[in-house]
Amino acid sequence: MAATTTALSLAVLACLSVLLLGTPDGGTVPKAVTESQRHLVEGVGQTLGAAIGHNADDLRVAVTVPAVGPDDLLARLAKVRKWRGAVVLDGKSRTLIAAMGEPVPIEVLPPSVSDAAVAPISDADGNLRAVTAIALPGDRLLVATSRARLPRVDLRQGLVVVTKTGQVVESRGPVPEQVMPLVAQAAAAATEGGHGTLHGESGAAVSYAPVAAPGLGPVGLAVVAVAQVSTGAAAAGAVGVLPAITLAVVALLGFLLIRRSLVTPILRLRADALQVADGDLAKPVRVPRTRESQRIALAFEHCRTTMSGEPAQRDRPRRGLSARAAVIIATVGVLGWSAGMALLATRHEVTVAESVVTGLRDQTASTGETLRHSLGGGLADLKAVATLTQGVDTAALRPVLDRLHATQSRYRSVYLVDKDGRTQHVAGREPLRAAGPPPPKAGVRQDGGSRVAVLYAHVPLSGGAAVIGEFDVDRLAELLRRAPGKVRLLDADLRTLAATDGYVAFEKVSTDRLRQGVEAVRGGGTAHVLDGSAVVVATALRGGEATGSGWSVVAEKPVGELALADNTLRRNAFVVSLIGVLLAMLLFGWHHFVLVRPLRALAQRADRLVAGDLDTVLYPQRHDQIGTLVSCLEICRQGVVDGIDRLGEVRRPRGTAMEATVLITRIDAPTPVRRPEALRR
């Protein structure tokens, strides 16, 4: 039973290896490409939605600054170059109260605005605009328009922003005309809140994601990525056939070996043992070739000849295969097959297609641009605060800083310092920047006087004072997670400022491929390094006052973590190899504890009986064939000691099943005699 069950389990494993190692994947876009595209569009959608949502926060900060009236408020907004046009309206009638800059299309706004609302539009030049409205006291609305755009990054694939009708309002990279129907279909699905990838003819992959502003919900836009990808080559259908055939042969040979050397000898020996124990002493006991079975058979033959009066023959066990060796050989065969599968998995080279590297490169470049945009946006916020509060008393600046920190999650703290660097007002957590005079020019810098990475934006004010905003490093790490693998933000000296997993601040990178990736982007742009173990993509943060420190984003993605057909083959090979090891251990353990050990113990008792030990009683401990052999050998021992009357019928109960049953008369217990009261006392 054990050998049959193990053989069937190995047969099932052989079929499983055919399924896992021989699944063709030809004619499909590699999953790693679609995953990188999906992460790309989701990251760009989040960046664009955050930029649109920040407009409402910026307007809330602007109205915090004291203003005489609507005209004064719009005059202050006009100083901030972000706003191209702004109006103040009556909340109910939508009549114009004050206006500034270019015309504002108020018809795209919802009928009622209780707090804030955002609506995207496309201007006459085909550029994307965001119309933002917030509610003012006195049942009024402040509506302003600003430019919204995709990250300025050089992509190897097409990236477009479309409305739910399929109109393209912003684009980057090449977008073939023949995929526009897929783009329109993806836009319709994304504006309904869906995510996914559509596949067209000749390997076109279109991934899409909606654009949603934090706190405001979907804005009616979708980000769509278009890539022309070469379909994966079909995996060889016979990859899993040869291992399956090999395992089937190993299972068959192991089954035959255990059957012939362990199971069959025990069954034959059991039949002969029952014959001797039944009193039939005429037929000699057959001696098998397996060592343990030989020794037990010779013990039965010794008892038979002794009880029958035949001349005793001291036959020694012939050389043969032991039961333990047979089980070990069968187990080693299965383990060898498992080792071969593991060797196949480790030696199988994984090929990374160019389209996969391109997807990782674009994803990292977009993440770097998102990080640069976040740092630049923080600096722009402080500049807007400085511009809006020109001529305002310092005391009136404090609620503006509190409002800025409350509405922008990128800051850990925003504070005001005087010309000597002394803190005047703090919004948020305690500053980590080392005390000292603020830099004379606005920008984003790294504080070198702290044991932790402190990145801050600063803008000078009149009189030598400055407003400083320290960035939340954990928030920056969340932005870095949009890139693949382990991602680091490095300074010009290759020291770690932030990372997506555990790191030590200011720890220098030590891997050669990371250094190569950073050195390749010293002059700007994005580059990648590919070796047999990982893909490293580095992008430099360049452009504007926010990224003049030589910082770079480096993403390291192990090749084994990519969703490639070769990686799937390797993982499946390891799976079947592990299952083979488990079945081999089951094969050895089951046979060893159920058959081999009891058989060897019985063989040792049989040797002592042949050597003259007729006093030790043999007790059966199992209800199986070996237990039957122990019982028969005990009967034979009693027959040798007490005579052959102990064999055969004497071992069975007297009578037959047809005899009547006699009911024994019940005898009641006698009634106890009650002792006199005096005696009891």
Low-pLDDT residue spans: 233-238
Instruction: Indicate the structural class.
Output: alpha+beta
Give the number of helices.
Answer: 14
Q: Order of strands across the widest beta sheet?
A: 2-1-5-4-3
Radius of gyration: 43 Å
Q: Please provide the count of β strands.
A: 20
Helix fraction bin: 40-55%
| Average pLDDT number | 82
Provide key terms for this protein.
five-stranded antiparallel sheet, 681 residues, elongated, alpha+beta, single chain
Describe this structure in words.
- The chain is α+β, with helices and mostly antiparallel strands and 681 residues long.
- Helices cover 42% and strands 19% of the residues.
- It has helices spanning 2-21, 31-64, 70-79, 180-190, 241-277, 291-308, 323-347, 354-388, 394-407, 473-480, 512-520, 565-610, 625-642, 677-680; strands at 83-90, 96-101, 116-122, 128-136, 140-147, 158-163, 168-172, 196-199, 204-213, 217-228, 411-417, 423-428, 443-446, 455-460, 466-471, 486-490, 496-499, 526-530, 534-540, 552-558.
- A 5-stranded antiparallel β-sheet has the order 2-1-5-4-3, with helices on one face. A 5-stranded antiparallel β-sheet has the order 7-6-10-9-8, sandwiched between helices. It has a 5-stranded antiparallel β-sheet with strand order 12-11-15-14-13.
- Strand 14 and strand 15 (466-471) form a beta hairpin.
- The longest helix is centred in the C-terminal third of the chain and has 46 residues, at 565-610.
- The protein is elongated, with a radius of gyration of 43 Å.
- The relative contact order is 0.11.
